[in-house]
User: Fold these one by one.
Assistant:
Number 1:
Amino acid sequence: MENFDAILREATTKIGQDFFLLPVEGGRTFYRERVYCYELYHQIRAAS
């Protein structure tokens, strides 16, 4: 489990701000949890 904690810590530090708030039509930004989760999954796979 300690190994996963290290991988998770490393993966989350590699995810930029642009994966949290995404612009939509009309100039507003919204939090997109799904996009963040996909990127987190990608970073975890890349780190392990």
Number 2:
Amino acid sequence: MTTTTAMVLLILGCALVTWLPRIIPFVVVRNIKMPDVVLRWLAYIPVGILSALVIEGLFDTEGEYVAIDWMSMAALIPTLLIAVWTKSLSKTVVAGVVTMAALRYIF
């Protein structure tokens, strides 16, 4: 087996191993009626994941101590206000990107 063939097979194998765990739950649950309590619980997962990512991004852990990244905190406030006001994920993301870009341009 040549190196190129081995690399292609390796990439295809990695893609399959990455893809299967993400698709199988949707295929299995597609025809099952979930209880309302489970659906309510599942509704909090995206919010929890996004909150964890945002909060993790607010802190700088590069040095000896944990510090607040003030530029990220300054971008969070208007982004959070847009999120609460519009309740639109796309508008919130655009507001966050534009706010952070403006802050980086200014400072």
